[in-house]
Design a protein that fits this description.
Layout lengths: L10 E6 L12 H14 L4 E7 L10 H12 L4 E3 L3 H4 L3 H12 L5 E3 L4 E3 L2 H34 L11 E6 L2 E7 L4 H14 L3 H10 L12 H8 L7 E4 L2 E4 L8 H11 L26 E9 L5 E9 L12 E2 H10 L8 H24 L6 E3 L7 E3 L5 H15 L2 H8 L5 E5 L2 E5 L3
Parallel strand pairs: 1-2, 1-3, 3-4
Antiparallel strand pairs: 4-5, 6-7, 8-9, 10-11, 11-12, 13-14, 15-16
Helix pairs in contact: 6-9, 11-12
Length: about 450
Amino acid sequence: MKTINQEQIRYCLYARKSSESDEKQAMSIDGQLMEMKALAKREKIEIIEVITESHSAKETGQRPQFNYLLENIQKGKYNAIITWAPDRISRNAGDLGRVVDLMDQGKLLFIKTHSQTFSNNPNEKFLLMILCSQAKLENDNRGINVKRGLRNKCSVGIRPGMAPIGYLNTMKGNRIASVDLDPERAPIIKEMFYKVANQGYSGRMVKKWLDKQNFQTKKGYKLSLGRIYVALSNPFYYGEFQYGKKWYKGIHEPLISKYIFDKVQIQLEVVPRQWNKQVFPFKKICKCGGCGGSVTAEVKYRRTKKGVINTHIYYHCNRVRDYDCDEPYITEEELIKQLVTYLPEINLDSNYLWSELNDEIRRLDNLKEIIIKNNEAPIQLTLPRTKGEILICEQKSNEYILQEYLVHILQFGTPDERIKILNGIKSQFKLTERKLIVNNNI
């Protein structure tokens, strides 16, 4: 190696402190600067520039100030680095390789730390690589140990991280010893679940109720609508939790039962909107008796004890005119029953209704002609008072009559009737250049 004069060496002081929790024991940036400036003064080292940053060195090329340092070494602004320890320079193989490559090129002459100096010497570069690799090994092992500790905590039934609203973490040192019920908030959160499960509360209704209770988080904030939905969908409240891809049974006291939790999930299930398909016929003839506003409807789902999900339609005030309107819900079945009892008192559009009835009679007559034409046996028609007309026939050419019936429904049936009749067709079709091609090979 050729001799290097002290005047030719231009140092840059580099200090780094990771913002992550894995370096709590590392010296602060101010402490590093104080120690290294004192070292530079003792050894009469000229410092051209001071660079500091708070950033993890786990990943390659992710530190802006470190990248700036190497770029200036490449340009020749300075040719030596003074820093507290080798692990301040690098904790990953990529950045270490860039540093060693600059030394091989002769652009980086020295790296000085508080205890030793590394130059462009094979043995010293090898030692530098060992020390930085050791820092990487410690980093990797620390991550593995942390993950193993979290898995062990889950296996004994303690959920890592902050406890959900309604629970409190009981700490032992800096570790979670147990998760206990919050005596102030747990009863209200439990009542929130029951209001959704048993009274049909929506998320907005829950928020309105909580705000009236002046319910607040531990930091003194009102519970947002988003956090309400997160809480209502959190299985932790009935005693289980998920960490990673695995499920664990918690040792904490459940706030609700699994049955109540499942009822809440069904109640909050959002059905995809199908515009112009979901029809609620009684909205236009009803007004809210409480505030005089319009009436809307929605579909609700309830799970029976046998696991069957029943669908119900509820009509209620849309609360546009008065958000606080407390007019209760009514089912469509009950609404129809009450409407029927008022028929003698209702004003009717006779012309319109007779027109609709004649259309239905014409459809029925057309259907009767099809059956009579293709059936030699006598046809018996009965007209019960409550269920309308039932056609009972005995025929010889059943297949032909069914075909004629399909034609009749497809021509004169309602959209719902057409959908039902198409369920009886087993063939599949392909539409090519506006032509329908049938495929019976299924």
